[in-house]
Amino acid sequence: MATIEPLTRYMPAVGVQSERHWQLLLDNPEQLMASVLAPATGYLASLTQETEAVLISRYYVLAELFRLLMMQPSATLKALYQNTLSALLKTYFDIISSLLVVA
Known about the structure:
By secondary structure, the protein is mainly alpha-helical. Helices cover 93% and strands 0% of the residues.
């Protein structure tokens, strides 16, 4: 009996709280839905703003790359190739260094 005593005290409280939520839903469903959806709406608004900033910055980077490519095609392609190769070599170096540290 002692093991189920906390459960017998908890269940009526859950019932009362559940009844309050149902009554609030029946009395004012718009307010309840607004309060439930407010965190998700805030998160989506923040995500939308961040996505917009990223897309705009990517657009400007691509526009600048296209402009350089049109003005100086060989120099732009050579620089792009060297930067890509440099990034790949840096990644390779980081991987090998991590493997050597583990070994």
